[in-house]
Design goal:
mainly beta, 33 strands, 33-stranded antiparallel beta sheet, 62% strand, 583 residues
């Protein structure tokens, strides 16, 4: 039995006086071959400048004097890089030839100073920091089944049921690897985790097959079946970059976001009162890539949003790029979509090159060419806007509006309530076919712009109307629906008005004026501002005010008038001209 056993090894010249390795033991007893059984052991490896790179302390082990290999199935304590890393475990193998250490069981580790140590002071001889509860500020604690250290490269690897814990984050995986070098101020530049990776921080949890942490940038990149979740939201992607400093997520490759909102979604076109009554909304957003931060979300490439309320039908939004902004409390502020935008809600479908939804105002603006369809009606223009809460809808620039009308002699028919309203206040006539033509009947209006509200539909700028019972052109046209929602609307046209009313060839009416007002209840057309009425038979009437009664065919005037009345259908008589509609 030997006491105070020491086995040193020195660097080759010119550092031959500098220790490279030393094993000290209180007692040593020779064993088989070159093996020595040692007790109360301290094993150390030194850098060329004298720093302690590795310190191993164990109650007992076997040491091979030829290969300088040490092994034990007992407990040990390890300190690496001048106490930068402190470890406890059960069972180890040390090979001095390549500075290789394996700890085989129950590994508990503390990385002092965290991943980016500025300065770590030496521990006292009897210090036991791993016995302290919790995780201190600036510490990383790691538990695993096994531990591997390669002194030649500084590579550290943890294997089996790995869990790394900081004050604000926890990482679990099957394998964890990083390079530890540079002594007490050595930085860890890259941390790799593989197999069943799970990372939790600030209420967000992400899982993946692999993860790479850049401590300096505070950024994690997760790959392979990536999934994440936090309160009210979850998602998946092929790759996820998590910026821990900015609290942002960047996902790429088949990205899917599931987002639950208390009320109201991202698809425009619904009144806020109805949205509040529909209950929670489940949003599913798919895209090629996405970026999520506390108050901003960006989606790029083949964006598809499905909005499913607790009550009511789903809605949909499709585009190439989507930007969603919320306030500090998570309330929706705006949804900005660009590139082939299409959104659908109930019977409404709108398309355009871009769409801005201002959620607080509940206002939608669509840049064109914009097109919309709703309940058999349709329209187009350079720009489109809608305010569902105010039941207002408008189109600007090269505007067009088409709606179905029933057969019969009514003018225009009823266009119905503006798209996006709470209810249809005036039912449209549907697409009934003309029994004679066998095709649907339509009213079509082209103009510079139109504004549609619950009580009026107003067209302005080069208005042209095509209807089976009427053609009209003017500068401005206002259409007011009947109070009961059925029958003819009232009309008011201003500015260079030209009206052509359908009827038998001889009785067709053509009227010009500065203003034309049609009162549906009386079926009376009133013309002012140099009015002129001409019939198909050549009759012509001019006065200060001219009124035409559609039901009776009577033309009446106010003030000084001039009239030219052609012969009737019976030659040689003074019979009055044939009226467009029989009395």
């Amino acid at each position: 039995m030997l006491e105070d056993f020491v086995w040193p090894e020195y660097y080759p010249p010119p550092n031959e006086k500098q220790l490279r390795f030393r094993l000290q033991a209180a007692k040593a007893e020779p064993a088989e071959g070159a093996w020595v059984q040692v007790r109360e052991v301290v094993l150390e490896r030194y850098a060329a400048d004298g720093r302690v790179e590795l310190h191993v302390q164990t109650p007992r082990c076997d040491f091979h004097t030829a290969t300088q290999e040490a092994r034990s199935d007992g407990p040990l304590e390890v300190r690496l890089q001048s106490d930068r890393l402190v470890l406890e475990g059960q069972g180890f193998l040390w090979r001095q030839s390549n500075a290789w250490l394996v700890v085989s069981n129950r590994v508990r580790t503390m990385l002092r100073g965290g991943w980016l140590a500025e300065q770590v002071g030496p521990l006292g001889t009897n210090a036991q920091p791993l016995r302290l509860p919790g995780v201190g500020e600036g510490e990383v604690r790691i538990e695993a089944d096994r531990f591997l250290f390669e002194g030649s490269t500084g590579r550290v690897e943890f294997l089996g049921k790995v869990r790394a814990t900081e004050t604000q984050a926890a990482l679990a995986c099957d394998e964890l690897q990083f390079v530890l070098s540079g002594g007490p101020t050595g930085r860890v530049n890259r941390v790799e985790a593989r197999g069943g990776v799970s990372l939790e921080r600030a209420g967000l949890k992400a899982t993946a097959e692999q993860a790479v942490l850049d401590p300096a940038l505070e950024r994690v990149e997760l790959t392979g079946n990536v999934q994440w979740e936090r309160a009210g939201a979850s998602g998946r992607a092929d790759l996820l970059q998590w910026d821990l400093r900015r609290e942002t997520l960047q996902a790429r490759g088949r990205t899917v976001l599931h987002w639950t909102r208390a009320a109201g979604g991202m698809v425009p076109g619904l009144q806020n009162a109805l949205a509040a009554g529909n209950g929670p909304v489940q949003l599913t957003v798919t895209s090629d890539s996405s970026e999520l931060s506390p108050r901003l979300a960006r989606f790029e490439g083949n964006v598809d949003v499905i909005e499913t309320p607790a009550v009511g039908p789903p809605a949909r939004l499709m585009c190439s790029r989507l930007v969603v902004r919320t306030d500090a409390n998570g309330a929706l502020e705006s949804v900005d979509s660009t590139g082939g935008v299409i959104f659908e809600r109930e019977n409404l479908r709108v398309s355009g090159s871009s769409c801005l939804y201002q959620a607080r105002l509940n206002r939608v603006e669509v840049a064109g060419p914009a097109h919309w369809e709703a309940d058999g009606r349709s329209g187009a223009g350079d720009r489109l806007w809608m305010e569902p809460d105010r039941q207002r809808f408008g189109v600007e620039g090269n505007a067009e509006l088409v709606w179905p009308r029933p057969p019969g002699d009514m003018l225009l028919g009823v266009a119905g309530a503006p798209p996006g309203g709470a209810t249809v206040l005036h039912e449209s006539a549907g697409t009934d076919a003309d029994p004679a033509a066998g095709e649907p009947l339509w009213t079509r209006v082209r103009c510079g712009s139109y504004v549609w509200s619950a009580d009026q539909l107003e067209f302005t700028g080069g208005v042209e109307v095509e209807d089976p019972q009427m053609e009209m052109s003017c500068a401005r046209l206002r259409v007011r629906p009947p109070a009961e929602g059925e029958g003819e609307p009232d009309l008011m046209a201003d500015g260079g008005v030209i009206v052509r009313l359908a009827g038998p060839a001889a009785a067709r009416i053509t009227a010009t004026a500065q203003r034309a007002e049609y009162e549906a209840a009386a079926a009376r057309l009133r013309l002012t501002g140099q009015p002129v009425i001409e019939r198909g038979d050549g009759s012509r009437f001019v006065a200060e005010v001219v009124e035409y009664h559609r039901r009776t065919g009577v033309i009446s005037t106010v003030g000084t008038y001039r009239a030219r009345v052609e012969r009737g259908d019976n030659p040689g008589t003074n019979a009055p001209p044939t009226l467009p509609w029989p009395r």
